[in-house]
Amino acid sequence: MLDRQHRVRRPRSHSPAPAGALEDLRFIRETLERSSAFTAIPGWGQVAMGATALPAAWLAARQNSPSMWFTVWLVEAVFASSLGIAATQNKAQRAGVPLTSGPGRKFALSFLPAVAAAAILTVILYQSGMARFLPGTWLLLFGAGVVSAGALSVAIVPAMGTCFMLLGAAALMFPVWGNLWMALGFGGLHLAFGFSIARRYGG
Hints:
Blueprint: H1 2-5, H2 19-36, H3 43-60, H4 66-95, H5 102-127, H6 134-150, H7 156-173, H8 178-200
Helix pairs in contact: 3-4, 3-8, 5-6, 6-7, 6-8, 7-8
C-alpha cells in the first residue's frame, strides 16, 4: 500500500504536432495577413509624384504673389494625386487586390480624414493671410494620413509617413523655407521611398 501511495506519477508525454499541421497553420496565418494588408502601394507612382514636385517647388519659389504661389501648388497637388491614383489602380489590378476590396477600402478610409482636415485648414489659413504655414500643414497632415493608412500596409509606408510628419513640424517652426520643405517632402521623400518600394515590393 505504501509503495502505491508514494509511487511517482510520470507526466504524460505530448506528441509533437505533425509537420503537415504546422505548415497548414503557417499558410493560414500568412493568408490572413495578406488579406488584411493593402500591398498595392505604387513605388514608381511615388517616384513620378516626387519628380513633379521638384519643378513645382522651383516654380513656386519664383512667384511674386501668394495667389500665384498657391495656384502652382494647387495644380501640382491635382496632377500628382491623379498620377498616384492611376498608379495605385494599376498596381492593385496587377496584384489582384482592387481598390474596392476590404484592404483597399480600409486603406482609403484611414487616409481620407487627414486629407479632409488638410483641405479645411488650407482654406482657413489662406483666407487668413497665413499661407506661409501651408507647407507645414500639408506635410504634417499628409504624413499623418500615411501613418494611419500605412498601419494596413507594409512597414515602410508608416515609416515614410513619419518622415513627412517630421518635415511638417520643421516647416511649421521655420515657415520661411516653405518651398524647400515641400521639395524635400513631396519631392525627396517620394523619390527615396518610391524607389525602395518599387525595388522591394514589385513596382
